Structures are given as C-alpha cells and as structure tokens.
UniProtKB/TrEMBL annotation, chain A:
InterPro entries referenced in this protein's UniProt entry, alphabetically: Aldolase_TIM, DHO_dehydrogenase, DHOD_1B, Dihydroorotate_DH_1, Dihydroorotate_DH_1_2, Dihydroorotate_DH_cat, Dihydroorotate_DH_CS, Dihydroorotate_DH_I
Protein name, UniProt field: Unannotated protein
Family annotation (CDD domains): DHOD_1B_like
Domain Dihydroorotate dehydrogenase catalytic: 9-292
GO molecular function: dihydroorotate dehydrogenase activity
Natural source organism: freshwater metagenome
A Pfam family hit: DHO_dh
Family to which the UniProt record says this protein belongs: Belongs to the dihydroorotate dehydrogenase family. Type 1 subfamily.
From TrEMBL, chain B:
CDD domains named among the record's database cross-references: DHOD_e_trans
Keyword Acyltransferase: no
Gene3D superfamilies in the cross-refs: Dihydroorotate dehydrogenase, electron transfer subunit, Nucleotide-binding domain of ferredoxin-NADP reductase (FNR) module, Translation factors
Native species: freshwater metagenome
Alphabetized PANTHER family for the sequence: DIHYDROOROTATE DEHYDROGENASE B (NAD(+)), ELECTRON TRANSFER SUBUNIT, DIHYDROOROTATE DEHYDROGENASE B (NAD(+)), ELECTRON TRANSFER SUBUNIT-RELATED
GO-annotated biological processes: pyrimidine nucleotide biosynthetic process
Protein known as: Unannotated protein
The keyword Iron-sulfur is annotated on this UniProt entry: yes
UniProt keyword annotations, A-Z: 2Fe-2S, Electron transport, FAD, Flavoprotein, Iron, Iron-sulfur, Metal-binding, Transport
Molecular function per GO: 2 iron, 2 sulfur cluster binding; flavin adenine dinucleotide binding; metal ion binding; oxidoreductase activity
Family that this chain belongs to: Belongs to the PyrK family.
Length: 320, 282
C-alpha cells in the first residue's frame, strides 16, 4: 500500500482500514474463508444474518446458476443468536477480524430483541439490519418493501442500541422508489444503508416442469445484477449525499468496486464472487487501490460519489 | 486458525492429459505437493469457462485417484461426464491448458485401522473415487469387493488397472447390456451376509445411497457414503449443499455436504427429508 494514499473508510462512527467487506450470507461467520486470506486484511467480515432462534432454512435444491449469476434460496439457516454470540463472535475477535453483525427478524420486536442481545457484546464495529431477505415464507415479511415497516424496524433497533453502534439498513432493490425507503430508514435512525440485497427470481426446471428451487423463488445475485446495484447507489447518494452507503451486488473485480465507489458507496461488499473465487475480496481490494491511484485520487474518500461531480472536476480537487 | 478447509489451496493446475474413456473423460492434473493432503473422498472445485465466463460458480468433482510417483510429481485424476455446459468445457481442455482449482476439499472416507471386509458400491461414474479408495484399503490388508451399477454399459466406469486393486467385481446394468440385469441393491443383503461385509463405501446417485443405507442399517453394517448435492461454493460459505442429518439427540441438523461431507455416515442422513418441498422443521 502506498504511504500517502488513504484507503480507509467510515460507516457512521465506525472506521475501517480498507473499504472492502464480505457480504452477509456469502461468508458464513468467517471461519471458512480464513484459510484463503487473513480476515484482518479486509475492512470487516459481515456475518450471515442471524436470527433469534436456530433455523434449518429451506429444502434443497437451494441454488441454480443463471447467466452471470445465481439464484439462492437458503432461508436464513443459522445457529440462532445464543450460539452465535457464544461461538462465532469470539472466534472472529480472536482472529483480529473487524465484525459487522447482520441481524434478521420475523417481527419488529425480534429485531429489537436481537439488538438487545448484541449491544453489550465486545468486538462489534457495526450492526447491519437485514430487512430485505427475499427467502422468507411470507413475502409480506420483507420489511424493506414497505416504508412504514422499514422505519419501524430501524426505530426499534435504534432505541435499544442508543447512539454508540452504527446501524446499517440493508435494502431491497425490489421496490418502486428505493430513495424514499432510504430516507425513511435514515429518518428512523439508520447511520447508513447497504445496497443492494438480491432480486427476487425464479427458475423452472424443464424436466420436472416445476420451479427448480425447493423454496420456489430465490434471490438473484452475481454480475447480472451489478447495474441495478450501481443505479440504486447512484440514486440514493444523489438524494442523500452525506449518507454512508455499503455497496454490493455482483462485484467481482476492482473495476466493479470502483464503479460503486464513484456512484457513491463508501464501502463495497464482495459476495457471490467469493463462491467462485475464495480469494476474490483480496483481488478486488488490490485492484481497486491500483485503479484509484492510477486515476490520481489521494484517498478512497475523495472518490466516493465522484460520478456526481460536474464534468470539469478532476480527482484531487475538493468538491465544491 | 480454523480447521475448516485446513489444507485447501487455490492454485493453477496444468492438464497433463485428457482422454476419452467410454462416455467419460479421464483428466490428469499436475497438483504438486497438494497430493500429500488429498485422500479418497475429497473433492476438487474447478473454475470453468475461462476468465470472462458467465458461469460464475466452480464445478465440484470427486478426486478419482492421486499419485506422487509419476514423472510429473504429484498428480490428480478426475473422471468427468460431459453433461452440462461447465463439464463440457472442462472436457474440451487439452493437454497443456491451465485450470484454476481449489483442493483438497471436504471429508475423506474413514479407513479402518484393522483389516476388514469392505464392499465398495458405485453408481455410474460415481465409481471413480472408489478405485483410489480400493488401493488404500488393500494396502491396509482389507478384503475389497466392488459392485458397480448403471442404466447401461457405456455408463459403467471400470478401468482395467482399477480392477487389479479389488478382490472381486460385479457389474449390474438396468438394460441387461452387460453383467447382471438389475440394480446394485438387488442382491445386496445376500452379498453382505455371504462375504461377511464389515463396512460399505458408496458413491453415486442419492436414490442409490438411500437404498443402500436402508439395507446397511437393517444388517448393522457401517455405511460411509459420498453424497451429491448441488454446490455453489464448495468451501462452506453458501449453505446451498445441505443435507438433513440426525444428531445424537435425535434432532435434525442441515449439514453442508462440502465441509461436513461429502463422505457421511449413511445411517445418520435423514434420507426421507432430503429435498422435501416444504420448510424443514427443527
């Protein structure tokens, strides 16, 4: 890393040495990827969304590869918050990883209960509130598709957490106006937003002539959805320029990450790319830094939202 | 450091040879010192389609055999059926091509510490890893019998050199084009009783593994099976390849066939719950 170049980023009050993160649901709780790179070398591990109780998730088949993407239908399988706090967070802390814990609930109260369990646990940098998982039995439970539900969840978590731990709301692209949802969660106390969760999709198996996935519908991820993510980041940054955005959706190279930074993301998560390349996040991180340097940026922060500057602006100049 | 994926490495591997064997391709890769950590039952995950491919996920293949004695040093043999777009691409890779591989992954077959009577059962090209296993078991002084089955003769994978490492080999085809007419499970009870089988090792379609498990459980024979479930990552992060497994307390856990498998205790897999079209309840 160059001596002068400042690669660090902030999401609310939380500081990270690099802007690269895992994506919730794509890194489990970190142990599996630790064989391929030191977890402390990235910004933070964003853990798989944890629920209150242990959960087995949806039946198989749970995935289907699609052109430049994949559908998944996991259904938030996980050990539950007690086992997670007992086993997973201490392991991450021992291995010097920075940790963003992602939480998911079935009710507004469940999110608040999860926040209560987590608020005094040491070693957590921020909380991602996943209000947009598409793989739940009742699509009505996708809080992020409804403004009032989104606000209610974030408001409940904010009240429990107080002012210390940054709260990042993970939003769904499957809405008519993502800006209004983003404004709503910020108003309710979110310090930042994670854009985007997967898009709801379906594959029909032409041999069985039925939906291929056990859960019928699944979340579409991978490079196929990247332009949707870039658009969402651009729109939200344009409407709320000071809001920290954790960008994600199909990033598999430094070039892809740079696109999201320029659109307005302060950090970038690498998700599905880690399935095909366990080393992807490090490759993205190395290439992103090189691309920023090549373009004359002296810091990551100076590139955030650069795509919104007028065509006369050059890297290195202060935004007017 | 975690013990998951402990010896796994992502490395470039050269294709040393690619030969058509019946309906399958036998692909030999140069993997150097990684052979030291590869055991029968482990698998390899391979990128397909080249750098700008729209196929974003690796393809998982059972390691058929490994060798550290050849002129190239450590080598890994794979038996690939060119069925899908990814496997067809792999089968088109010529000698000298470089593949992006992650290996060794997953659990290995447990090897008995004392000589026992082992029965190896393979379905289709699921027989591939069993020949490497047979060599290891023979070296431990085990008696090794093998039965292979497929819908038709061209789908049986039984290389000549592999036959030397087993005491007996029976072949079953459903269309009666060779061997015995029928399925590998048809006379399984008799074979287990006659040959005083202590342990069964199997690899093949899930329906076959399930049927073997039922028979093995009723005759109190240990059954280690290598399962097949669609995987996105192969390294334990995506949670797509899970199987319902009965825990010691009787409850069900959804275990990942990539890191808790592919070799599992057949008696513990809750076969009746696999792929059920509803939410699995705890």
């Amino acid at each position: 890393m160059s001596a002068e170049f400042d690669f660090s980023t902030k999401l609310g009050a939380a500081w990270f040495p690099t802007p690269l993160f895992t994506a919730s649901g794509c890194a489990s709780s970190g142990r599996e990827l630790a064989q391929f790179f030191p977890l402390k070398s990235i910004g933070a591990v964003v853990t798989k969304s944890i629920m209150l109780k242990p959960r087995l998730g949806r039946p198989t088949p749970r995935m289907s590869e699609t052109p430049s993407g994949m559908l998944n239908s996991i259904g938030l399988q996980g050990p539950g918050i007690d086992a997670f706090i007992a086993n997973d967070i201490p392991w991450l802390v021992e291995n010097n990883a920075r940790v963003i814990v992602s939480i998911a609930g079935e009710t507004v109260e469940e999110y608040a209960t999860l926040a209560r369990r987590l608020r005094s646990v040491p070693g957590i940098s921020a909380l991602e509130v996943n209000i947009s998982c598409p793989n739940v039995e009742n699509r009505g439970l996708v809080f992020a598709c409804d403004l009032d539900s989104s606000r209610a969840v974030i408001d409940g978590v904010r009240r429990i957490i107080g002012g210390d731990l940054p709260i990042i709301a993970k939003l769904s692209p499957d809405v008519t106006d993502i800006v209004s949802i983003a404004k709503g969660v910020v108003d309710a106390g979110a310090d930042g937003v994670a854009l985007i969760n997967t898009l709801l999709g379906m594959v029909i198996n032409i041999d069985t002539m039925r939906p291929h996935l056990g859960g019928k519908t699944g979340g579409l991820s991978g490079p196929a959805i990247r332009p949707v993510a870039v658009r969402a980041i651009y729109q939200v940054h344009e409407a709320i320029p000071k809001l920290p955005i954790l960008g994600m959706g199909g990033v598999r190279s430094g070039r892809d990450a740079l696109e999201m930074i320029l659109a307005g993301a302060s950090g970038v998560s690498v998700g599905t790319a880690s399935f095909g390349n366990p080393h992807a996040i490090i490759d993205v991180q190395t290439e992103l830094e090189r691309l920023l340097l090549e373009r004359g940026f002296d810091s990551l922060r100076s590139a955030v939202g650069f795509a919104h500057r007028d065509s006369q602006s050059a890297p290195g100049e202060d935004a007017s | 450091m975690s013990t998951i994926n402990r010896f796994a490495k992502q490395v470039p591997a050269h294709v040393l040879s690619n030969k058509r064997v019946g309906q399958y391709h036998q692909i030999l890769l140069n993997i150097g010192d990684l052979v030291k950590h590869c055991h029968p039952g482990n698998f390899v995950a391979i990128s397909v389609g080249g750098e700008n491919s729209g196929m974003i996920l690796r393809r998982a293949f059972a390691i058929s055999r490994i060798s550290d004695r050849g002129e190239y040093g450590g080598t890994m043999e794979l038996i690939v059926a060119p069925h899908g777009t990814g496997s067809r691409w792999l089968c088109s890779q010529q000698e000298g091509a470089t593949l992006d591989i992650v290996t060794p992954l997953g659990s290995a077959f447990g090897i008995p510490t004392e000589p026992v009577n082992a029965l190896l059962i393979g379905g289709g090209y699921g027989s591939a890893p069993l020949f490497g296993l047979a060599e290891v078991l023979k070296a431990r002084g085990c008696r090794v019998d093998m039965i292979l089955g497929a819908s038709s003769t061209p789908k049986i994978y039984a290389p000549l050199e592999g036959k030397r490492s087993v005491n007996s080999l029976k072949i079953y085809t459903e269309d009666a084009t060779s061997g015995i007419h029928g399925r590998v499970t048809d006379s399984l009870r008799e074979i287990i009783a006659q040959d005083q089988i202590d342990v069964i090792y199997s690899c093949g379609p899930m329906a076959m593994l399930s049927a073997i498990s039922t028979i093995a459980a009723s005759m109190e024979v240990v059954h280690q099976c290598a399962v097949e479930e669609a995987m996105a990552c192969g390294i334990g992060v995506c949670m797509t390849c899970v199987l319902p497994v009965t825990k010691d307390d009787g409850s069900i856990a959804m275990l990942r066939s990539c890191i808790d498998g592919p070799v599992m205790d057949g008696a513990k897999v809750a076969w009746n719950l696999v792929g059920q079209g509803r939410e699995v309840k705890a």
